[in-house]
Queue: 2 jobs
Job 1
Amino acid sequence: MEPVGESLTARDILQTLIKARKNVRMYPDNNPMYLKTVDETFARFSRYLGEHEALTLAIKQNTIHHDGEEIYANPEKDDNFALFFFKDGVRELTFRRGLNRDEIEEFLKIIAQEFDREQVDDDVVTLLWERDFENIHYVVDEAFLVDIDEEEYERKAEETLKERLTDPNDLLRAYKDGFQGGEKTDTAVVPLSDGDLQMLVKELEKDAAGKIEKLVVILFELIYLSEKQAEIEEIFQLIREAVHYCARRGDIALIVHILHRAQHVMQEPSLKEGGKDYFTMLRYELGQERVIACLAHVLDVGLEIDTGAFGQFVGFLDKNAIPSLIHVLGELKTVRARKYIIDALIALGKKDIHAIAKGLNDERWYLVRNIIYVLRKIADRRATEHLLRAVRHSDLRVRKEAIKALGDIGSHDVVQTLRECLDDENGEVRIAGARAFGTMGTEVAKKIILEKASNKEFRDREFDEKKAFFEVLSRWKDQAVFEFLLETLRKKALFNRARNEENRACAAYALGLLGRKDAIPVLRSVGDSCGDFLRDFVHVAVRKLEGDQ
Amino acid sequence: MWQSGNSKVISREDQETLRSAQDIINQLSVILRNAQIHNPGNVAVTTAIDRFLALLNPLMARDGSLTLQLVGEYFYCNDVRIRYALEYLLNFDYLAREFKKREIGTVVFLPGLRPSDVQAFLKGFLAAGFSSAPFDALRDHVSPLERIRVDILKKIAEGERDDTRKVVKKVYYNAVSFSKGVMTKIKSGEKVNIRKAKRIVESMVDHLLEEESLLIGMTAIKDYDEYTYHHSVNVSILSVALGQRLGLNKKMLTELGLVALFHDIGKIEVPSEILNKATSFTEEEWKIVKRHPIWGVRALLKLRGLDPTAIRSSIVAFEHHMNYDLSGYPRVRRYGDLDLYSRIVCIVDQYDAMTSARVYSRIPLAPDKALSIMMERAGKQLDPLLFKFFTNMVGIYPIGALVMLNTRELGLVYESDTVFLDRPRVLIIVDRSGNRLEKGPVVSLTEKDPHGNYLRSIVTTLDPNKYRINLAEYFL
Ligand SMILES: [Fe+2]
Ligand SMILES: [Fe+2]
């Protein structure tokens, strides 16, 4: 808190401003420090202006003065509060009584800007001017707006003007002619009506619409208006810039429109062969990372996307977009955005599967997994070799996704690898392999799983794994499987009974899934004479089969 | 040159005070309009008065009183300038006109104001409308009232005017030398300082808000060697002036001023021997000149890449010769409506070009003649609605017109009168005995004799170019 009773000096206020500027630069405007800074600055100003009508600061290049007294001095170029105002022409700043918190906050925001950056189009004065503060006034020196070599412009222009003095004789001729009737003006000014104002309001509303669309129209007109090849080339560069501009704003529909028009322009006879190249160039540009990254960002922040337009956009992409898409895919934060990019990769992937597969080399498992998903959805045999490689990936999650993908592809060149998976030391990999065979659904696949399940060692596997294998088997609804299941269900063992019971339970479970009602009597008879564990599975299976009726 | 950031303008559009101040002026105008149609006891008038008091009371309670003042074309409410809001445009203009007619400069309302006070004020106001000494008539009615005071409209002292004239001149030449710099820089491939451009336009906007006639007066001087640079600045000034009439806000005015300043930037690619040619263009030369809108787009977009200002400027550079009905150039294939700013610049550009000595027909036209030619084009080549606003701005006798008065005096239109469009302020250059005046008086054609007859009226207009009258001698 401020010490009460003691008067604040102009120097105190200036220090407050300098400190506040630092804080406002540092903290976002919802941060408590930010709010505290604005509140405190406002409080100090209010106290000062309670005692004084106004606070006027005279600004020189490196110093600030109040009432003739120097209250700030800094010979350095950097972080010089005086120079900050001085260089844009501000020579005096006045804060008047009545200054409110909003004004203080807005003012701090203005002086917190980093004007040194080249992209900033405004200077301090422009911002002060636009805000039009009621209680903050400034005086500027406009002289610096004029280039040094043009300083004399006014004098010279005036001189030349005054050289051509009006000839007194001409003037008197005019005077005489004035009596001859001269020309009577026939202009009549029609006063404005309410109707005019209404029309004007409509015009202004219409004017609020975006201007980039119009610029695109103009750029294409410019192509038709071109006289030389070099001009066309230049315009295509500008069209390319327009594409980037749209990408920054996430305007996919307009990008699509530009491409359509470019495609159309291509057919213009005057453009001959060159036109095709430009269109290709433009398509190539779309795939550049700076375009894709903009769009990805737009997707990530959840802006509304025209799905149809996005599809068309992807249609225009060339295969050079694949690396960019893969790169942004790794960076995206939302599921929604990833889905759009993955769909784009699936659509594009057929053009260059090897480019997609390069994504498998990435260090991030989740990205690799996404790429496997893409390869799987492309469902192309050419994807196989890459997926076969991915099965040996170091991350389990990746391996599982790759195995799943191989199952989808299902050609016989994947059989050997999947078969090896069934013998993998990791149970999850073995299960994934079995499921992949299930997805393949071929006779060969069936034989392999049956063989595994009949194997003596299989009995000693974990229950969950065995259950998964039996579940896979149940997808072949044929006699061989049916008989195998019945046989397993009935099978009794002398040794290792618990393990055998598990196998029987799995068989019961699979019979339930298989859906043949002639299994019911067998299940019932087994259920009458077995332990609790098995009985539970038998009951579930019976109920399922009966329920299917 | 020193210039103060215009301080009296209210800062936030959403500020309640501003809204109610606008409402108050609007409501006063409603009362007066109703009172001129109905008698003061009519319910339309009394309800309007009640509403007026309801608006007034909170502000009077806050500030102790409410002072309404007319300065130039603007109303100030307790020293705060009221913004020219579109929805109030007509009522504001009406009220300003009625105030000027009666020479009212200030009305002060004090707390405790009653409907009967307003009624009495109205009576005086109406009576003043028919009086040859209107302000005295009003004061007679108002002086017994305790809660309303009026003051006469102040004429700006000539000395003060000279100072402002100097400032305005500086603003104008700063802009011209800047526009020259821009063109030279673009030609040599140097960077253009857009921040500076903004500042230049902002100071023009400021002075248009305060000293419209003076700045427009600067555009009337056409006798420069470097036509292109002056033309760019003139088009910028006149566009902003028109934009202001359309109710655009300061930010939009800056944008408009900027794009207007750059509208002919494509001319940097036209060889200067063509551009500055003293005789008419050949067909081949015309073909080249007509490509400047195309070159303008390229120059502007290459300047700093695409951003909203670059986009808007290139649209205007491309469209400014296309005409409202697309009959101009460049010829286009598939096209919608012209941009609003293009249509503004198109009107202003034609006006400045026609009244200048170095383009098109090469014979400059008298301002009023140019206007009447443009009148023919409204609805075809020119947007009729915007042109209507334009003529309401420049008046029947634009600044720089040479006029013969019924007093046998010859003069130049010096400043237009937004209320009486055919009664501008005129600088007398030849007196009634036919003597040339070096520094003649500026007279308002709205001045009346004690019988209520106008002292001076325009009889005919003459072409100042025909007599090679150098406006600079009189306007600088
Ligand atoms: Fe032009
Ligand atoms: Fe022009």
Job 2
Amino acid sequence: MSVRALWIVSHERGDRGTVCFSRRFPTVECRARALSGPQYVPVPDDHVVLQPLLTELGLTDPERPFVLSRDDCARPQRSPALELHFEGRDGGVLWPVLAVVQGGLILACLVLVETPLEPRPPLPSLASVSQGLSLLAGLQSFLGGAGGKQEGEVLASKLALLPSILLQICPFGSPIDTPQVGAMAVPGPASSQKQPAWKPALHRGRALVSVALSETVRSMQYGRLSRQDVWDVFGTVTCKCEVEGVLPSVMVTLTLPPNGSPLQDILVHPCVTSLDSSILTASSVDDGDGSSFSGPYKFPFSPPLEPFRLCSYTSQACRPVPVPPILGSYQLKEEENQLRLTVALKLHESVRNSFEYCEAHLPLVNRGQMNNVDVKVSSGQLEVCREKSLLVWLLGQKFPKSREVTLGGTVSFSELSSGPSDPLCTGLTAYIKLYFRIPDMTLSGSCVDQHSVQVYSSAKPRITTSRELMSSEYYIWNSNGEAPVSSGLMAL
Amino acid sequence: MTTGNASSWSRRISAFSSSPSQFLSSTTADSFLTELLDELRDDRTSENTKVLLLTPFLEYPTLLCPSPAVGEETAVELLAIFSQLPHKSLQLKCQLMVAITSILVCTSCVSSEVEVAVSFLDLLYHTIQDTNDHKNGPQFYYLRSTACDCLREIETCHPGLLSQRLEALYLLKQQETTPLHQTYTLLYILGLKNTIRLLSLQKGGADGELKKALAGNEGFAWKAIETPLFLFLPSATGQISVVQTSTDNKELKSIVSLLLEESYLLTPLSQAALLRELIEVVAMVQALSPAIFKSQLVRLIGTVEITLLHATLLMKSTFTDSLFTTEDENFFIKRLVSMAQHPLLSIQQKLFYMDCILHFPENRPISSNGEESLPVLVTPCLAASLLPTVFNDSRTMLCRLSLLSLVYLEADENDDKGVGYLFGHVLALHKIVDNHGTREMVVTYFKSVFTFLTYFYHNDKFTNDLTKSITQLYSRHCYLAPNIINLIDRIQECLEDSKWPIELLQALQSLIVELPTAQLSIQNLGWHLKVLGRVSQESQVSQGKTLWFLLNVLINSTLCKTGGWKMGSAVLLVCRNLLQHPSLDRVFNELADVLQHIMQHYDDVDIQDRARFYYTLLTNLSREKLSGVLAKGPDVNRAKVQSLSSLVAESEGLSSCLTIHETTDTVLKLTKIINTKFHRVLQQYDTGNHNDEDVLAFYWKQFSSPGFSYKVILEYHLTHTGDVDIVFNKLFSICLHFDLTDSNYEQVSNISVPCLFKNRKPPVVQVMLQPQQPFPTTLRARALFTTEDGLSWHTQLEDVPVSFSDIFLPLPVPVDWSQEKKEQLFDLLWMSMSNEEPDQSATSLFCFEIGDQQLPGIIESKFSPYLISQQSDKELYKVVFFLPPQFHVLLTITNAEDAVQVRIATDNWELLPFINTYLKSVTHEIPTS
């Protein structure tokens, strides 16, 4: 259950990459040597590891269209564990190497295999794999959060902290925790009660509990009889609890409206002390019977110091309301030398008509530079980004009383200059992507009542709750064109 | 010697870490270790620098301490440094503990025989006694934490060491209430598990033994750690040995229950580690029921933490239906499927969960060969949420495609809606590639096609559609030829009975030959010829159309004028394949026409010649002879291949004659010739008489004269490495190439050796070295050679070490210089060096005992080529080593009362550690009484 080596590589497209941090764990290496016997492959120097790692991730030779070692179609590329092949005298294969690519950074680790290497054991039988993935995910958020690109100096200062952090959480390659910012604080004097290891210090001061419920809706709308529109919802409950005590007890209850459909795929934070098994039974992957549990969902927990995601769920709110929150239709036609667009969006009556923002993006790519835009909207404003060949329809904070808005007109293109391209949208295959956020509402109807939050603590805390609905991957396809068959969400 | 400042140390340490072998090539591990220890002992060094200085010990202890003896010594040194540190140097103390642990473990010094190991373990154990920092205060918090970690690591590498201290550890764990109780818990459970494992390896009833162990509070169990580590692993069969217990063991039961109850207080990573040990404990002790985990299951399956879910999966595979009912199992698998597509989890986690589904430990597995198989419970309906989409990243897409392929393959055959969706997905990718998708998308598309075909190749509808779509794709993007050929090759290897590759090749052939000549660009033609070359390898495809096309192109396009050698070779490759084709008779005339046209009209002489040769073969040889001449492979006489090596064009199968093969094992080695005494070049200059004063000036002047350079010549025998493959018995045209491992030498030129026969006298190879810095080094050697069958080979040789004494040369003075003159020069040099002139100079002293040996004998055997003068009466010897480009090491050796004194002067202090090591090794050989 250990990591043999750890690398952090910075890599910009086209360059050869540099190892900006690496750490080896010699005592683990001793075990690896003893355990793998003749199949033992030592961890080579950093510069030797670099090239095979990049090849395996498909990042070498960007200008060469086909390189057998990288692009062989029979080479499996679906496991989270990579296999690094070394050429030349030292030869050998290092396995399993776990890797995460994040912006210009590659985080990778080689984990210890504690069973015989031949025949190759299945990944789930190796304890170190989940440990390694956890460590990498922790490093990823420590170095700057998923997806975010790191500024050089910030990154360098964080990398400089790593040796002392690793000395605390993983001196010998077996991590006992993920890296935390400011982990070196010495905790206060011991109390009579055992203090959780995930809570190094105690809160002192005003008590505060805030619970934020955030739902995200995804949708694919095709506007065709032959193809059903699909949409789904997932939500997260994020808490920040500043409560005194070693193990203060807090309970958050999530309730649904009377006819609400059950929350599914519930995942909870490990600080939740106990769970009713009925909460977990509803799953999005099977039909389930109608009799399943529909709340209230009680989550008793003892909070860590930092804000955390208490639970997440998915919901098939689409069952009682068969229409997505914003139903759209998009018709795009080619007319002589121009495109004719007709768009209609309708906000469902059950949805709160008060947006923080609502935008519809209409990319019109693979056609050259946008030339003449003659488009009118019934509500809101239209912005034209010529260099991106993008129409942005800003719908503002409210739909009109009718809850319907339309856009119509023509766009012509100059064929002389080339515009942006996208291999997905050719011919009449085109989409509108919606971006919106509605505060104080959820589609599943779930809510956390401020008064239902129970805190068993001497001081009475201030309790705040909030809700919001956001969109993500919300597509409305041109009904005159072909949307890709496998464009997303289950639709069988 | 050096008073390196912090920044130079930081540079040196990072140079060491990035490539230790390269770093150590310019110094010795021994001297680097000494430097590190010196600097660590130095009070003036800042704490931050000291922390940095310890990193080499943390990462590469065995490089710095290559032997147990050095490991032990180093540990003693570091422990001494540790004990002198003030309390506030917390981080440094922690780092020192980790460093000492790493050294002791990695140099196999953890044993009761090693004094420092015993005292260090006592120190660790003593440190962890102060629970809740009652005695020493909270500044020792992290030190205790590190001490626990060190003990845990030593116990992991030497299982059983703590087996006689379980009760004490249990109490410590119970008393601790700061977050450190986690480390104590992990230490205790590891000790407990290893103790039980030790008991399980013993024969007979173990009730009493177990009870005794739980109450144990003695010293370290040094005896127990003689058990080799590998006994502590689950065997390949997954069989777990069991402790034979007859009675109910209440103590153990309550210990396990309490650990489980408190597991909530641990971080997820530590919780998972604890659970894994507990699972093993419960599995090993019959008296414990797996039901003890039941109360934790809902919490564990409900969490978002991957490590906890993974540990639960281990529970499932260890205890199957004794812990998980059918319902539980059903619930668990549903949970895994929904996690494998959960929008809030990372890609890596989801991929891992998909792997977990394919290796799910079912209560009633249909097959249990450990290979991928689909659990019965995963139905098409359940898996629908895992259908691939074009918005997935490549890995997820491919993983989902193959998982779903497996699902639909096992599902009802009449319902091909699901397969239809997958095929639709492949076509959607096709469309993206067709619209100039990214390179990654191209690769993903071909991988998807490959995956899809391996499952559904028997369905004609899909394969026909794929043939059509790939042909269409090729017609628009012929640069995809390498991808398409790769796909065809792999499908042929993987599905021998599939007709699809042939169908696709036929379709591609038809497409190409029907292209109007006017539209053919030379660039596209290259791709077309590549495809036709591949088509011509297939005996089932008729080749008339191909030849017709070639002739048409040769006559009607500018190919003959502008194609050049490369295109010509591509055309000839097709022709060559056709010479071996079973239907050669049917295309005889067409092939002859093509070859004739090339030999008459192609604008490249080599192409013309080869065409002529093929033409001659075609028209003069019988079919049998022709195939005999052209065929190659293991059954063909090697000598014949050689004769054809110049005839073969680029092609996968036939390129072996033209490509350079890599040997699997080392074939050659260089063995140093020890008894050559004068293996060096000396450039001599005739001189006139010099008076005393200008001896030194004359000496220095010669270095600046043009053309003056000293080279070291080392002689080696080139031999086979033991018993090599019979192929390599006779080697020809061997070219040895040397790569430097550091920047201290000029490039070494290649060496050619005409031949090497197994049973003949080995050839002598002279390696000429020109140092820039006279440090020991290692040369990477590789060789290119030809074997008797005409194949070319590339091989790596073992590294060639160049030791410090290898680069000693005698003093470069004219041969006619008298003894006195040399001695005079010696004295002048000595004087200048003693005065630290130049400022790189240094002097030193080395003493050794000679026992019964006579000093003259030693001098004669070790230093005679470098001896300047000897005054036998006084037993005073002057020795000088000249080290190119222009460094000197001067020795005066005298026999003092009880030891021999060697006084050293050098004009390059950096050489001192090497001189020291050299003198040690020379004097070490002298037997002392």
